[in-house]
Design goal:
Keywords: Copper, Disulfide bond, Metal-binding, Zinc. In the C-terminal section; belongs to the Cu-Zn superoxide dismutase family. GO terms for molecular function: copper ion binding. The chain has a domain of about 150 residues: Superoxide dismutase, copper/zinc binding domain (Immunoglobulin-like). It is built from 3 helices and 12 strands. The strands form 2 sheets. An 8-stranded antiparallel sheet has the order 9-7-11-12-4-5-6-10. A 3-stranded mixed sheet has the order 1-3-2, covered by helices on one side. The radius of gyration is 18 Å and the shape is globular. Bound molecules: zinc ion. The site of zinc ion has 8 residues, from loops.
Amino acid sequence: VYRSGGDSGPQHGHGKTSQGVQSVSIDLSKEEVLVEAALTSTEVQSLIERTGRRAVLKGIGGSKQDLGAAVAMLSGAGSIQGVVRFLQVSEEDCLIDGTIDGLEPGPHGLHVHTLGDLTQDCLSCGEHYNPFGKQHGGPGDSERHVGDLGNIVAGPDGRASFRLEDRQLKVWDVIGRSLVVDSGEDDLGRGGHSLSKLTGNSGDGLACGIIARSAGLFQNPKKICACDGVTLWEERDRPVAGKGRSKINPETPPAHL
Ligand SMILES: [Zn+2]
């Protein structure tokens, strides 16, 4: 279990155990590790796995009562895929935690689009989610689409792992809509291109996923995914979506449920 507070201020100072980690508690009977951290869930997972043990993410939550959580599984052309989680940690703040693999290294625009319609892949997702009729902008601007999340940056390995906090986007407004990662960099409305004030001129949608309601911390006791019978441990070794997901991996140890 990974707990992620929207605020990682001094009120959580239980002594630093690792860079960006405020506290760790382990419950052997439940096979759970609770980590309070200002890191992405992928970073927390790799820190835990550095001990030689395997870990799967069961949920994320804030230190206060969460106001809703959602998840988008992104897939698209080629091998691009990812998981992005949304957690409303307060009325104001939405935490957006994600990892997307298979991208060209460099910046890519990330936006919530109006429609949760993937019938024509990312083309049927509609425009950037813009309930207040504003111009396109950057996440720190007041003049922006609510769906404007700026850029994520993929490293040389093609992975973008990110943790954003947003004060305009609310989980309850975006469930049922879609999240799209674009081929190019979002100019945040400042590029002077004819598309800058509309889309940030960030190119085509490469991968997209519908934003669906999900469980918050401790709300999900499942150990087997009802959708395809994959256990949490088997799931650990599979792609989050796509063809490889149902493939049997002989390396996966049996799950002791
Ligand atoms: Zn926009």
